[in-house]
Predict the 3D structure of the following.
Amino acid sequence: MSPRTSPELLMDAAPGGTLLRQLLARPTALAALALLCVILSMAVFAPFLSPRHPADVDITRKFEAPSLEEPLGTDHLGRSVLARLCHGTRVSLVAVAAILTSIVAVGLTAGCVAGYAGGRVDGLLMRACDVFMTFPTFILALFLVGLLGSGLTNVIIAVACTHWAWYARFARGLVLGLKQREYVLAARAAGTRPARLVLRHILPPVLAQMLVMAGLDVGHMLLHVSGLSFLGLGVRPPTPEWGVMIGDAREYIGTHPELLLYPGLMIFVTVMAFNLLGDALRDALDPAAARETDCAPHDAHDGDGLDGSGEYADTEDGPADFEATGAGARQGAA
């Protein structure tokens, strides 16, 4: 089993304060946490940062320059840009949280059942995963949103349906390795029921690694939500959302480019902060991963989790590469 995916490394990692101290000792993690604190503060204190309602239209005030009353000015309908940015933070983060919660729940359940049960159940679930992993995730999300209709709820469902397979295959690989561990075999020999065995001995380390993977995918999911909203298939106007704001302002890119700059910068900073924090968390939980990532050749594995022969790299000993699987999940829209 690759040291980057070995669950025992994650299980042995000191929890709580020790992990927090390791994160705070990393400059990139500190910078990411600071940025995320600012972004979350914008979402929580949105009504206080800009008293105007984000959908309050006043044509007489359109394209106002930044002032004390409107620090970022107004858009083409006289709406407060700051108010829409702050309230749009709420919409974007809530959507991403709902998507990742659904993905982790479905992927964890399917992966644990497939890995522990094996046989026909494993084969059936993995073939279902293969179907979803065949198509680029963004194209498949477009197709599902076209079937379900536009709207934030349908976007959450569509994006979750296009990504659960990556997490299910990753969880299955971890379970295959864990169920051969001595303490699991001993618990099985002692007559522990399968459900209790999975919940007590297998689920915790698998869930911990999947949460790390989900942290690395926050930016990817945010780009999905914003991209679909930009195309008019996601959040419906006048609901404030970063992708919607970019779509509304694209007609004025020549005269008022700042209307695209503000939401674009928010997307960039948020994605960067979550990626930096996810990398730092991964390195803190598994220091060997950082060293191996720095030294490993870039062509060791394909980005979609396949080895050189075209076969999936996870075996009965566990998943071959956490980074390869995570990269495949993040590159699915390419």
User: Anything to note?
Assistant: The radius of gyration is 22 Å. Residues 22 and 284 are 6 Å apart (CA to CA). Residues 1-16, 292-334 have pLDDT under 50 and may be disordered.
